Every structure is written in C-alpha cells, then in structure tokens.
Amino acid sequence: MASTTPSEAAKRAKLPSLTGLRFFAALLVFFFHSSLTDSPIPPNAPINPFADASIADGFSTAFSKAGYLGVSFFFVLSGFVLAWASRPGERVTAFLRRRLLKIFPNHVVVFAAAMILFAGAAVTSVADWLPNLFLVHTWFPQASVNLSVNPPSWSLGSELLFYVLFPLLIVPIRRIRGSALWVWSALMVVGMVAVQLISTYAVPDTPKSAITPVSDMQFWFGYLLPLGRVFEFALGILLARVVLAGLWPRRVGFGAALVLTVLGYTAAMIAPFQYGFVVATIVPVAALIGATAQADVDGRATFLRSRPMVWLGEVSFGFYLVQGVTIFYLRSLLGENTYSVPVALLVIAGFFATSLLGGWLLFRFVEMPAMRRFGRARPRTQPVPDPVPAAPEPAGERTPVTAAARD
Fold it and tell me: How far is the C-alpha of 300 from the C-alpha of 388, rounded, in Å?
C-alpha cells in the first residue's frame, strides 16, 4: 500500500500560485455577470452593454458557463486549502472563529450597501433579507430569498456549511490511505452527477425560471442548495491529501490542466444545462488545483506566484462579493441603454475597476483588520487535549501564510 505520509517539501510549501489562480476564477465570474442578458436585481434590465446584437450574443454565449466554473473552483479550493493548513489538535472553536471572520465582516458591509442602494425595505421584505444576513438564504427554494439583497452572496451560504462540516470531514479523510484517495475522489464526482440526475428527474420542472432554462426549483436544488455542493468541498480535501502524500501524477501539469479546462468548458457549453454547473468541468477544476499546488510544492517558478498576482488573489474574495453592487446596481443606473463597441468596452472596464477597488477596500479595511483583531487564538494557560482522535497521517504540521492557505 502506498504511503500517505506528507513529504517534507509538502509540509513546508506555501501556495502562492494557488493564491494567484484565485483571481482568474473571480475574473470568470466577473465576465459572466457582465455578459448577463437579465440582471438578477430590479428592474431586471440587461447588463450586457453591447448594442450590436451579434457581439452581445457572442459575449453572452462565450461566458455563459464562466460563473459556474469560477464558483466550482472556489468550492474545491476551499476544501483544499483548509486541509492543507489544518493541524491536528486545533480547537474547533478557534477554526470556526477564523472562518466566520473571513466571510461575515465583508458580507455584512456589502449587505448594508446593497440594502441602502437597491434592496431596502421598500423592495425586499424582512422574510427575504433576514435569511441573507445570516447566510442561510440558500436553504430556501424561493428565488426571492436565495438570491436576495446581494446575489453573489449566495455562495457564502455553501461556504458556511463547509466550515461547519470541515472538522467532521477531515478526521475520516485523514485516515484514507494510498490509492483509496483516488477512489474516494471519484465517488465525490459520482455524487455531483447524482445531484443533477435528481434535479433533472425528481425535482419539478415547472414553473420555469425567469433567468435559466430550468425551473426555479431545479436551479435551486442543482446549483444553489449548499448540501449539493459539499461533494466539491470534500473533493478539495481529498486532493490536498493526494498532493501532500506525493501521489499527484506528474504528467498532469499546469499546461495539461489548462487543456482539460478548455475541453471541460466546451463540454459544459453543449451538455444539458444542469450538467454545466459542475459535472462537465469538475475534473479540469481538480486538475488545475492539484497541478498548481504541486508546482508550489516543487518550488517551480510560475507567473501566478508573482507579487501582482498574489495581491490580486488576496483581494479576489472582495472583488467577487462586491459585484452585486458594482455591476448590477451601477448598470441599473444606465437604464437599458446599449453602446457601440468602444463605449461598451469602457463600461465593462469601469465595472472592473470599480469592482477591483471595492475588493481592495474590503480586504484592506474590513477583512484584514477583523482577522488581526479577532482571528488569533488566545494564549493557552495549560495544555489542551486534542479535540479529535489522533490520525495515523496528519495533514502537515505547518501554517502556510499565503492567502490561498488562509481561505
């Protein structure tokens, strides 16, 4: 049986390239949002700014699956970096405190901005916005709840569930040995397929969604419901174990992973709608994360680990989260006007610059101060027993300091 003991290189490795790669995932979501033909906030006017119908259609089609790919990447990455940075013996309360500080301060600030600008009491009822505030809104099948206030915040409902489940998942996953890691990884993909099969054949397909080809219930069950996204998170944990154990196949490097991503994206474009959420692209997403992490373990130089890319990766969470304001709200101020190609490109550039500025402001003045003030564990006055049974193979006794490992 193959050993799963972490290599010394893996123990010491930081993940700067994964940090840089995060920005491109957030950028995919940005282009997806910018290309929408219908805004998810009132007055539900088109966001796509191109007046030329063929260019508008091409822009919308090209990025129609980009948001799904970007979010799936983030969910797998969450499991990967949490497992990578996990230390046996860490207090569950300390872990949860750091994770909640990672998402809630930014969320509350953007939530408040969205409520003030476009989702206030006159538009959004208490029954709709209160679940959003506490990030339980995606457990509700009603579209008026699960995409309320700041629509991009829907993914935080899944992240919140991941954080609660991680201390429970990491213990048995640490005990998996050798090639069984790949078997369990394949089972996670099977679980993702099962979610879409249930959505297709067991969930009501009427009434149809106003913004997707499926029903509101199918979109909720197959995409928004946190429980169905746990398979991606668990896959990320398993992938971290694979790389830590030195079992990542060297033939699957970053270049091969990019080729797989193009093929997966093409498959998502032609597959039935629900299978474009996750299933068509999950293997490429896993390959990208595993290959990039292996490059960091090997110490190989990549453009993703450059200082500008790491900075972009650090602000990518805020960049993603503010898009409900910087794209949806700002576009609503322009009405239904569309523009020539040069002007439309300037509009998109304006959305990008505003989103990046908002992401940096959140990172610099909300997220980091909250983490510095409340994220550090209090000094222990006496030894604290391990909260979980000792695992035969720890995930590595190190504390990566890059943004990817803090996510």
Answer: 35
Q: How far apart are CA 193 and CA 202, in angstroms?
A: 14
Helical segments of 299-386, H only:
307-314, 316-321, 323, 330-333, 341-362, 368-374
Tell me the pLDDT tens digit for each residue of 185-240.
999 999 999 999 999 999 999 998 888 999 999 999 999 999 999 999 999 999 99
* DSSP state, residue 158: H
pLDDT on residue 396: 37
Tell me which amino acid residue 394 is.
P
Burial of residue 311 (CB within 10 Å: 0-12, 13-18, 19+) is middle
**Contact (CB, 8 A) for 38 and 211:** yes
Sequence-distant (6+) residues with CB within 8 A of 48 are 34, 35, 36, 37, 56, 59, 60, 338
The enclosing H or E element of 286 equals: helix 282-298
395 pLDDT band, cuts 50/70/90, is: very low
* H or E stretch at 68: helix 66-85
Q: What is the pLDDT of residue 237?
A: 98
Q: Give 52's contacts (C-beta < 8 A, 6+ positions apart).
A: 340, 341
Distance, in Å, from the CA atom of 63 to the CA atom of 51, rounded to the nearest integer, reads: 17
d(CA 199, CA 197): 5
Burial class (CB in 10 A: 0-12, 13-18, 19+), 381: exposed
Is 149 in a helix, a strand, or coil?
Answer: coil
Distance, in Å, from the CA atom of 62 to the CA atom of 269, rounded to the nearest integer, reads 9
Radius of gyration of the chain (CA): 21
Are 100 and 163 in contact, with CB atoms under 8 Å apart? yes
Give the separation between CA 199 and CA 225, rounded to whole angstroms.
11
Query: Under a CB-based contact definition with an 8 Å cutoff, are residues 78 and 407 in contact?
Result: yes
Distance CA 79, CA 151 (A): 23
**Is-contact 195 231, C-beta < 8 A?**
yes
pTM of structure:
0.91
